[in-house]
Design goal:
single chain; about 100 residues; mainly alpha; two-stranded antiparallel sheet; two-stranded antiparallel ribbon; 3 helices; about 55% helix; elongated
């Protein structure tokens, strides 16, 4: 699909379930920008790998923080881990939302 076709699919209100969830079988991306891109990304629920990808992203966010908490890390370390986790998840989302094949 061309970028214009993807944008047209993304803006089509028929590809939203209950006005919240993006569900488009024609869109090959697992993660897509939200209707208003400044708000971040959302999962394309029509893709079979959507749930595993969502669980992986949550594990990337929460796992290191839980491990650091269990090891007794200080507040500065926890902040650094949280910022790094968030940056990694944002980079993964940006890559997956741009990947069209």
């Amino acid at each position: 699909m061309t970028r214009e076709e993807l944008e047209r699919q993304q803006k089509d209100p028929r590809n939203r379930k209950w006005g919240i969830f993006y569900y488009c079988q024609a869109d090959p991306r697992v993660i897509v920008p939200k209707r208003y891109p400044w708000m971040g990304w959302t999962i394309n629920a029509a893709r079979p790998v959507a749930i595993p990808v969502l669980l992986l992203l949550l594990a990337i966010l929460v796992g290191p923080l839980l491990l650091a908490t269990a090891l007794g890390a200080g507040d500065g370390i926890m902040l650094a881990i949280g910022v790094t986790d968030l940056a990694v998840v944002c980079l993964i989302c940006a890559h997956l939302s741009a990947h069209t094949e």
